[in-house]
Task: inverse folding
């Protein structure tokens, strides 16, 4: 009896989720595709659904002179937001990501994009070749849909032998597009730190990346579209058809693959989490609670790797804003390698009395030990300058978790400037983001949103992070919950500590 009740409850949750997101079964999509192939459509853009949850939420809420922002702290909410945006599209969807995995989360989004394309929405999918190298066949099949275009940034010439490409063409391939955005109809956009994959959206029970996106509306969305167009038409972007002329897989086979994955989603606990999403509840009540204020997109130029001048690079805009800080600077970066120039900048701010807080990964939590090896060489100088450093724990008691995975790793990239400015984007405080990759983000001048983030961070730092200290005994990691002080990297085994010690000697900081 309990199993039957549980099944009925799950079915109700599933139906609620699919109803709110405007669910259309894939078998119906196949019928729609057949009907479309049987007739000529005069207009390249057909009308989408008459209404959607986001349409209804935006009615009466728009402020033409300001931008609305909604922080997406929770991975499940972040997935619901993306699904809702795609369902609300009537004319065009632009998708730009560094990673787009072909797992159940990626397939769920592709499924929704195909549905949008079948109702006449124009879709442009722009991915870094970090994804394309592994998914050429799938992306080529996707591009065979008349409403979908796929392009790759800075693709390798040797498609089957990536290692050989890196060896023969390292200087070029070392530059990657790390930008992350999704925009719909020039009205709504999501910008932040999340790639597309199960670990970013609460679908992985073993690992969850703690991340931050912002759902945006208002004039700033046009700026997101402008930077997308710059990359779409940029000199280092190529259509998937030129890279893989033959469509070996075919669109029908791709759709069959997605449909085969559906039963796993239908019976997955993740579906219940989606249906229980606080954002979905807000959508159903038509009350998102936007934070309103001025906003602007900051991004690197698409031709960053080709130009010598650094005046319009994102790092320059962020550094200038840091120098303007009067009271407080908060840096949230999973990969934190400040470099000598960054150390000098932070030290100069401390000498002016600016309070600085850095939040990054512990050795146990990081997914890139090589970066941690270089970061730890800066900790002592930063602590002695008076910079507060917090490192995220890897293991957290279930009742204290903000993120659902049994192991957590920070992936958010944000900066707080005094009590009013917040930058949310893809930029890590490391040499790779500064000088090699292209990055983007949104600068929000919204004190209420800064206060909201501060409240969220207070809870995380109290329960999910170690505070670093420097005293007579040297480096220490203090647990705010227990007041215990560790004298070695907590939660990290001997071999992991040894590995990082060895990696720290490698002369490759400029590549990190």
Result:
């Amino acid at each position: 009896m309990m199993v039957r009740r549980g099944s009925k409850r799950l079915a109700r949750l599933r139906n609620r989720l699919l109803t709110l997101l405007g669910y259309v079964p894939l078998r119906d999509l196949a019928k729609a595709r057949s009907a479309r192939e049987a007739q000529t459509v005069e207009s390249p853009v057909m009308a989408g659904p008459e209404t959607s949850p986001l349409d209804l939420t935006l009615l009466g809420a728009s402020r033409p002179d300001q931008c609305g922002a909604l922080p997406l702290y929770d991975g499940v909410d972040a997935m619901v937001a993306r699904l809702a945006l795609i369902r609300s599209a009537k004319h065009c969807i632009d998708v730009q990501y560094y990673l787009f995995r072909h797992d159940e989360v990626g397939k769920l989004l592709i499924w929704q994009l195909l549905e949008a394309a079948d109702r006449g929405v124009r879709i442009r999918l722009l991915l870094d070749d970090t994804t394309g190298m592994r998914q050429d066949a799938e992306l080529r099949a996707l591009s065979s849909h008349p409403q979908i275009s796929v392009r790759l940034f800075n693709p390798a010439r040797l498609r089957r032998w990536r290692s050989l490409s890196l060896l023969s063409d390292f200087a070029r391939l070392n530059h990657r597009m790390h930008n992350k955005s999704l925009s719909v109809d020039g009205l709504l956009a999501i910008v932040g730190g999340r790639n597309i994959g199960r670990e970013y959206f609460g679908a992985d029970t073993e690992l969850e990346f703690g991340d931050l996106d912002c759902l945006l509306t208002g004039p700033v969305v046009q700026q997101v579209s402008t930077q997308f167009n710059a990359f779409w038409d940029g000199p280092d972007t190529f259509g998937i058809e030129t890279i893989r002329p033959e469509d070996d897989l075919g669109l029908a086979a791709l759709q069959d693959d997605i449909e085969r994955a559906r039963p796993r989603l239908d019976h997955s606990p993740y579906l219940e989490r989606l249906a229980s999403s606080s954002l979905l509840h807000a959508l159903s009540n038509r009350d998102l609670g936007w934070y309103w204020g001025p906003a602007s997109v900051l991004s690197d130029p698409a031709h960053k790797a080709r130009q010598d001048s650094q005046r319009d690079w994102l790092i320059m805009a962020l550094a200038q804003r840091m120098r303007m800080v009067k009271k407080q600077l908060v840096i949230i970066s999973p990969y934190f390698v400040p470099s000598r120039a960054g150390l000098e900048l932070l030290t100069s701010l401390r000498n002016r009395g600016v309070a600085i807080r850095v939040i990054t990964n512990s050795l146990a939590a990081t997914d890139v030990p090589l970066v941690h090896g270089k970061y730890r060489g800066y900790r002592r100088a930063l602590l002695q300058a008076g910079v507060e450093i917090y490192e995220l724990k890897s293991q957290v008691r279930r009742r204290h978790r903000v993120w659902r995975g049994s192991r957590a790793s920070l992936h958010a990239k944000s900066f707080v400037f005094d009590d009013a400015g917040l930058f949310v984007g893809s930029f890590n405080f490391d040499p790779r983001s500064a000088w090699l990759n292209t990055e983007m983000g949104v600068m929000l001048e919204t004190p209420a949103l800064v206060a909201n983030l501060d409240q969220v961070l207070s809870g995380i730092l109290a329960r999910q992070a170690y505070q670093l200290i420097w005293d007579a005994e040297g480096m220490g990691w203090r647990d705010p919950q227990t007041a215990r002080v560790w004298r070695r990297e907590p939660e990290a085994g001997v071999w992991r500590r040894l590995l990082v010690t060895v990696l720290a000697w490698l002369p490759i900081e400029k590549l990190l």
